[in-house]
Design brief:
By secondary structure, this protein is of the alpha/beta class. It has eleven helices and six strands. The protein starts with a helix and ends with a helix.
Amino acid sequence: MIIRALALLIVLFAWAPCARAQPPATVFLEELTWTELRDLIGSGKTTIIIPIGGTEQNGPDMALGKHNVRVKALSERIALALGNALVAPVIAYVPEGGVSPPEAHMRFPGTITVPDETFEKVLEYAARSFKLHGFHDIVFLGDHGGYQKDDKIVADRLDREWAATPVRVHAVGEYYRVTQTEYVQALKGRGYRDDEIGTHAALADTSLMLAVDPRLVRTDRLASGAKLGPEDGVYGGDPRRSSAELGQLGVDLIVAETVAAIRKDVAQR
């Protein structure tokens, strides 16, 4: 009996280091150690998603970090669906307009802007870092419309430079395009009007946030507030009938279309 117990203890002690060596169940690079990351890349996780958000006003009913929270949550879903992808830290400082005089969202407190050339350098050197460490496919996912062109400029420039290597950079515009096309059509198919759906901080935008993280939406204000307009930071619509159920339509479309687009791009590399 004693011999059998000792044998069991030996097995357990021998197995324990292996158990401790397992990386945490996460796709977020910032939650990994460098050795865990190295081993994951070596095992085939060679796609890295760079989520790009932005810190800007989103009307009085939605928090300033909407883009950052949303793109991180959706990038996680996309990475899990791909199976071979990890997610880099969110880029939260993006072009939002001029400061003197203040333009667009910069007229509202809390919006942060950087010049286009600064933003492009951040993207470029994030990509260069990931190439150095063994990633083969570097994916830009932008949650904001204002810098989609910058994403593509950087991706195209690096692809030309790295043409003789196995590394490619993908500016996946489908991620943002879905919110302007299929998602809008899905909302219209349920009877919602253009003057509700809107373009910024209105029904479509607010519903997406309710589906992803309702803590960032001031639902008490939605229920009791008057109709909001451009002077409040809400453009082209009305958020008062927003719901998580409507937002989930957008979440599902964004994830499905983006995963398909990434797979297509990678297959053509």
